[in-house]
Amino acid sequence: MNVLLVGGGGREHALAWKLGRSPRLTRLVAAPGNPGIARHAECVAVAVDDHDGLVRLAQKERPDLVVVGPDAPLVAGLADRLGDAGFAVFGPRARAAAIEGSKAFSKALMARHGVPTARFATFDDAALARRFARELGAPLVVKTDGLAAGKGAIICSTLAEADDAIAACLERREFGVAGSRVIIEEFLVGEEVSFFVLVNGRTATPLAAAQDHKSVFDGDRGPNTGGMGTFSPVAVFDPGMQARVMTSLVQPTITALAEAGTPYSGVLFVQLMLTADGPKIVEFNCRFGDPECQVILAPMEADLLPMLAAVAEGGLPPAITVARRAAVCVVLASGGYPGKYSTGFAITGIDEAESIPGVEVFHAGTARRDGRLVTAGGRVLGVTAVGDDVPCAIDAAYEAVGRIRFEGMHFRRDIGRRRPVAA
Q: Residues near 39 by Cβ (< 8 Å), separated by ≥ 6?
């Protein structure tokens, strides 16, 4: 099969690496790709928001399958454009991708169909939002309705923090149009789990689960980021809990979308909180997580390509076996991230890191300039290690981290070290 991969981040590098290991792959083209992806694919400089350019590229390459990695082009309708042009696409059309593109849409869908989630209300008026915040009481969460690069969920420990978050969205417009409407919701307590399922329109097939670390500093302190590291498997998400989530949360959502005339096709990222009252939806995403994708694919023994191709064609994926090994990903970030940061610093030590058995270094924000590999984003690398269990994977990942250098590099030192406990 010839495959076109859309995207250029750490998630897409993991996808390119895994697809590149498939005996069924003939040719892999990535747009725009990155220096890491270039090890597995031919990279073509077409941006993910250049839908006309991507359609032209597909018409030139005639891929058997197009895999769309990021959320923004899916929400903006890239799968519609490619599908209407006759290509098999792994990724939902825009009306179904609204499950991530609009949290108000997603929450309303869950409320109508009785899918357990946090108590919430949606506002475009700051005064009404603040009034509801006082009705809920702190702590609470303020979320932008639209996409905000993983930074649109603001956890507020006090009402003063909630007032400022509401002002940032609705008055100061710091998130642009994404924050022109906000969801105010109760703060759920429990273990958070990222669960991924493959969906062919009406049927969902479990894939794997991971646990992300969103806060920038150790001990879950500091502002939210796009993710500072993750691990898989998650002990508290056992087969019994997975079956419960599939029956009471995932399948009702998939059925509701299909019955509304917006069938979902692709991977569905189910962000869960395992609370004392049972599992509840935090939110849905319409793509693989980043950096969760890295720890799901790294230990996977099965061939990913026929899974994605089957879903894109409306069929069921081949039988998915549970990975027998564990994986941990530690994100190396630019100094200042998730705030302002500088780029263009030379990166060294990746080859030395990858000489450790079981280690892969996935590129998220890198570039080649004057023959050197340099930093080009906030999250720069995802150092990923596979081991017999999570502690073994942690040791290998941090040994690899110790071999990589770039100016301003920072990372969390506690990825996977806090052991989850059942709610």
A: none
**Domain limits of the chain?**
2-93, 125-180, 191-312, 326-401
Peptide bond before residue 206 is cis, with ω within 30 degrees of 0: no
Q: Are 82 and 89 in contact (CB under 8 A)?
A: yes
The 10s digit of each residue's pLDDT in 291-342 is 999 999 999 999 999 999 999 999 989 888 889 999 999 999 999 999 999 9
Q: Which fold has domain 2-93?
A: Rossmann fold (3.40.50)
Query: What is the value of pTM for the model shown?
Result: 0.95
pLDDT bin (cut points 50, 70, 90) of residue 135 is very high
Domain made up of 326-401: CATH architecture: Alpha-Beta Complex (3.90)
Q: What is the DSSP string of 326-394?
A: EEEEEEEE-TTTTS------B-B-HHHHHTSTTEEEEESSEEEETTEEEE-SSEEEEEEEEESSHHHHH
Which pLDDT score, from 0 to 100, does residue 420 have?
A: 52
